[in-house]
Write a structure and sequence with these properties.
Blueprint (H helix, E strand, L loop, with lengths): L8 H8 L1 H20 L2 E2 L5 E2 L3 H12 L13 H30 L1 H17 L5 E5 L3 H12 L3 E6 L2 H5 L12 E3 L5 H6 L7 E6 L4 H14 L5 E4 L3 H9 L4 E3 L1 H14 L1 H10 L17 E5 L3 H12 L3 E6 L9 E4 L5 H6 L7 E4 L4 H14 L4 E5 L6 H6 L4 E3 L1 H14 L3 H11 L1 H15 L5 E6 L6 H8 L6 E2 H4 L12 E7 L5 E3 L6 E2 L4 E6 L1 H12 L1 H9 L7 H14 L4 H14 L12 H6 L1
Parallel strand pairs: 3-4, 3-6, 4-5, 6-7, 7-8, 9-10, 9-12, 10-11, 12-13, 13-14
Antiparallel strand pairs: 1-2, 15-20, 16-19, 17-18, 17-20
Helix pairs in contact: 2-3, 2-4, 6-17, 9-10, 11-12, 11-13, 11-17, 12-19, 22-23
């Protein structure tokens, strides 16, 4: 479908209705001309002719079967004979026109044009930031549901019309414009808002690597600065995307393989990563670590090849069960089906420590692991789940790792979009070592429990922290202690249930796990974890001047127009002056006391008040 061919449904309708409209015009013209030419008689019996207006008026309500009345005088026989002819002629003309119109409304091309125009109008009138989601499969549904819960808009392009029709059934809080079209066409992407000023990013999630590559190229050429997240399941496609400058390329199989490798040599780091990237509120219970020894892998497809490569890099021996031998000839190979007992026994399942079921059939994968567990109950099981619809079956089987590609991609996309600082922090975890990760994991889980926390980012700017930015901008070099900002805005004697994990400065310097005395400056970006209520409380402190004044210095300033007026009247009565001016000057004077020293050691507000 080419959008350029449907720039205007109005002109398309006119082209299809050209012949019926010309026919009706001719019928009306002949009918009106005949009535004006045939003489009649008036009320006095004198000869009279109908004017053009009266003739057109009579033909209009007669030809459309609204009614019949001889105006302005009773017709003569000649006029009545002509009217009979006009009635049958107009019925034929209208039947022809209505039939053509009904055929036009049922024409698939016309309906596509109407749908395309409505979609374009919806996207054009968007005034909120949105993300362009290409592909509404399982991953796309997870992304749209998560964006909707976060209060972010989305625009969907999906080639399968049945999936688009199901979008309204998923209960989103706001309307999501959706179009059934091929996202590989640049005109479709432009119509979907790729070049729209409110578009904040493109997410290519189709099950076709070629389509995702085409979307990445179009986004790179049409909007070079726009963030693009693409799914790729082959190394070749990922390399091609990278050559065009695509920064975020997500291969679910490679991503899980790296997770498994991390779990093999750094279990605590993996548990920390899993805890931080889990769905907020979900219980992320610690599970047993992957053992070292001989593993059996069933299915040597795309996922199987990645798993064999990762396991061999970690020094784990792998026996492959497949109907065709590996092309590279690596590892031990057994011909057969992993769901059959003879093939499993030949692969040494009884002496193995782990099994990986990674075929593209969910029922076959479940059959493999059930059979393998019967032969060796102590096996560490890695189970691939291809379809979200089979979730109930996989919940009934207790595997150690369940690989769901759609969830892996969705989580990675959301982490990049909503908490961009989480990606460099997770990379830092992998480099800090197992002991460091284990200590941090114990500290965080002791405070917040094993339920996955809320993870979010805050930037000290006019959008996310307007009150703090105004305070910091009031004087050059002004800063505020991190610990004071994290106090409860309702009771500053308590700390909020959150913690800052990562701090990024405007000069590209970073601080891991900043302490409470760290000074916060304009432009800083913070990565926080904690309870959902703590996020709302912190947002209140950063955006409300009175609340910020309270958490920093403990002064309760009246808020609202009425209370501020009463406070000013009270201040004048006391002879103090304008309360607003006093508050501002005292705030600046107090804030000046918290500037960062040369050695970076900033004393807390509580210590200074004690003095």
């Amino acid at each position: 479908m080419n959008p350029a061919a449907y720039e205007s449904t109005f002109f398309l309708a006119l082209r299809r209705m050209r012949a019926p409209l010309i026919t009706l015009i001719l019928i009306y013209a002949v009918s009106v001309a005949g009535l004006t030419a045939i003489p009649g008689v008036d009320a006095n019996g004198q000869p009279a002719r109908l004017s053009l207006f009266h003739a057109f008026y009579f033909i209009s309500y007669t030809a459309t079967t609204i009614g019949f009345g001889e105006i302005p005088y009773a017709f003569s026989d000649a006029q009545r004979l002509w009217v009979i002819f006009c009635i049958y002629l107009s019925v034929i003309g209208w039947a022809y026109s209505i039939g053509t119109l009904l055929a036009l409304l049922q024409d698939q091309n016309f309906r596509n044009a109407v749908r395309l125009q409505r979609f374009g109008q919806k996207v054009h009138h968007l005034r909120e930031p949105f993300y362009l989601v290409c592909g509404y499969g399982e991953t796309g549904q997870l992304i749209c549901r998560a964006l909707d819960q976060l209060g972010l808009r989305a625009v969907v392009v999906e080639i399968d019309e049945s999936r688009v029709s199901q979008l309204d059934l998923h209960g989103h809080s706001v309307d999501i414009p959706a179009l059934a079209a091929d996202a590989r066409q640049p005109e479709v992407l432009k119509l979907a808002g790729l070049t729209h000023r409110c578009c904040r990013g493109v997410i290519a999630l189709t099950n076709d690597d070629g389509a995702n590559l085409a979307i990445a190229i179009a986004a790179r050429l049409l909007t070079p600065g726009l963030p693009t997240l693409c799914r790729a399941e082959t190394v070749e496609t990922a390399n091609n995307m990278a050559s065009f400058g695509t920064r975020h390329i997500i291969n679910p199989f490679d991503k899980f393989g790296r997770y498994l490798a991390l779990a093999l040599h750094a279990p605590a780091a993996y548990h920390l990563l899993e805890w931080l990237t889990g769905v907020p509120g979900a219980l992320v219970a610690p599970h047993r670590d992957p053992p070292r020894g001989r593993w059996v892998l069933c299915g040597h497809g795309r996922f199987g090849k990645v798993m064999v490569s990762i396991l061999e890099q970690e020094g784990v021996r792998v026996t492959i069960i497949d109907h065709a031998p590996p092309v590279d000839g690596g590892g031990r190979w057994v011909r057969g089906d992993g769901a059959c007992v003879p093939a499993l026994l030949a692969a040494g399942i009884e002496q193995a420590v782990g099994v990986v079921a990674c075929t593209n059939d969910d029922v076959n994968n479940l059959s493999i692991v059930v059979t393998a567990r019967e032969l060796n109950p102590n096996l560490f099981v890695v189970l691939r789940q291809n379809l979200q619809a089979n979730q109930a079956l996989f919940n009934a089987f207790e595997s150690d790792f369940t690989v769901v590609p759609s969830q892996i991609v969705a989580r990675e996309c959301l982490a990049i979009l909503t908490t961009p600082l989480l990606v460099p922090f997770l990379a830092e975890i992998k480099q800090r070592g197992e002991a460091w990760a284990s200590t941090l994991l114990d500290q965080l889980t002791d405070r917040f429990g094993w339920e996955a926390p809320t993870v979010w980012s805050v930037r000290v700017d006019g959008d996310q922290a307007p009150a703090l930015l105004r305070l910091l901008s009031a004087s050059a070099g002004l800063s505020a202690p991190l610990g004071d900002l994290l106090l409860d805005p309702h009771d500053r004697s308590r700390e909020l249930e959150c913690r800052v994990l990562y701090l990024a400065r405007t000069d590209d310097s970073t601080v891991m796990l900043p302490h409470r005395h760290t000074s916060i400056q304009a432009g800083d970006r913070l990565l926080l974890i904690g309870r959902r209520a703590a996020r709302g409380a912190l947002d209140l402190s950063l955006s409300n001047e009175n609340t910020l004044d309270y958490v920093l210095w403990g002064r309760e300033i009246p808020g609202g127009w009425v209370w501020e007026r009463l406070a000013r009247l009270h201040a004048r009565w006391l002879g103090v002056g304008d309360a607003r001016r006093v508050r501002d000057s005292s705030a600046l004077a107090s804030a000046g006391r918290f500037r960062n020293n040369d050695d970076g050691d900033v004393q807390s507000t509580a210590d200074r008040l004690m003095r």
